[in-house]
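Lecture notes, part 5. Sequence design as translation. It can be helpful to think of inverse folding as translation between two languages: the language of shapes and the language of residues. The source text, in structure tokens, appears below.
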């Protein structure tokens, strides 16, 4: 029998560390299995420090980064911090690497290349395993407080997915929900694992889905198109694989009209209007939307297609204001519920049974 996935969140109340901790406590009570922080030093407090504080006020929820990157932090520094978090949380830490994207672009830096991401992941895993690693210094590097923390990679492009299967403990698939993209993504991960002599079943699998908070058809269509454009911006292969069409101006030209990109624009409805040429099939391929029942059904379809799924992160878009009621029609018993409460009460039970 396939084990039901746990759900994770990567949007919390960042207004203060106390508010963040209270929000993580509430997520744990609601049944979420993971509290994850998307790190950007210009827009978020230090994630390792906040998660360490949260560890002291929670019991079961796993804590980690979604994402750290090897551009702003040396892998040894990330490994040291995540090992410390694992110690203070009693073994509940997880580290996820990515290329950097917004966090590094805001600082005028270049996101990590594939080889750099692979090298960083391998080094972090070896250091966390307590190995002595030759890094070109006088002596091999070793973390004295190493702990066996899993190191995942968030990946969307075919080459990154395959590399993650070779070297990571787990992979978050960032490919939207089109069946063909999901099939190819999991196939690439498994191929990478087999090429490295690993058992594909030993690689953890996570799914990240942009989840439209609104249930208004006009908002759904616009926001979903903006999400689709964001995927195209970072990996055109996600259009090519399922045979989707970008029948408009170059994405880089359109991107000059928004900031910082189609996934993080301040007004996702307006950014979606810029790509109104994307048809409904494209808009449907990269986001979750609709009623609670429709979202749960789409999640079950994706999970069944991929097979084993360990973590699902239903990333809310637009990013909700702390404590704000989810902008959709709600049943009387959920009146005033925010996104966390609504998703936990209305959607999760229909997915995990």
């Amino acid at each position: 029998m396939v084990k039901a996935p746990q759900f994770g969140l990567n949007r919390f109340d960042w207004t203060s560390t106390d508010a963040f901790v209270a929000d993580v406590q509430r997520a744990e009570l609601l049944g979420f299995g993971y509290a994850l922080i998307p790190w950007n030093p210009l827009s978020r407090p230090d994630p390792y420090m906040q998660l360490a504080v949260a560890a002291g006020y929670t019991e079961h929820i796993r804590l980690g980064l979604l994402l750290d990157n090897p551009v702003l932090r040396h892998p040894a520094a990330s490994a040291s911090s995540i090992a410390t978090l694992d110690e203070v949380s009693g073994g509940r830490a997880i580290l996820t690497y990515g290329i950097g994207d917004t966090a590094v672009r805001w600082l005028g830096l270049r996101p990590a290349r594939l080889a750099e991401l692979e090298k960083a992941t391998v080094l972090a895993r070896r250091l966390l395993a307590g190995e002595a690693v030759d890094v070109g210094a006088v002596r091999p590097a070793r973390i004295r407080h190493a702990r066996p923390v899993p190191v995942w990679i968030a990946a969307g492009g075919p080459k990154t997915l395959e590399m993650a299967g070779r070297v990571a403990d787990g992979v978050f698939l960032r490919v939207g929900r089109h069946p063909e993209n999901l099939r190819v993504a999991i196939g690439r991960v498994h191929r990478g694992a087999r090429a490295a002599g690993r058992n594909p079943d030993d690689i953890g699998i996570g799914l990240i889905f942009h989840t439209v908070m609104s249930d208004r058809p006009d908002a759904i269509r616009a926001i979903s198109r903006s999400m689709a454009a964001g995927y195209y911006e970072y990996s055109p292969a996600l259009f090519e694989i399922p045979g989707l069409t970008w029948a408009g101006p170059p994405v880089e030209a359109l991107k000059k009209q928004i900031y910082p990109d189609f996934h993080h624009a301040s007004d996702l409805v307006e950014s979606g209007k810029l790509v109104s040429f994307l048809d409904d099939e494209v808009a449907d391929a990269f986001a979750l939307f609709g009623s609670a029942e429709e979202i749960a059904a789409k999640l079950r379809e994706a999970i069944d297609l991929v097979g084993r799924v360990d973590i699902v992160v239903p990333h809310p878009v637009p990013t909700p204001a702390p404590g704000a009621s989810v902008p959709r029609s709600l049943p009387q018993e959920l009146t005033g519920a925010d996104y966390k409460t609504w998703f936990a009460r209305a959607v999760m039970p229909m997915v995990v049974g």
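The translated text above is only one of many valid answers, since several sequences can fold into similar shapes. The chain is about 45% helix and 15% strand.
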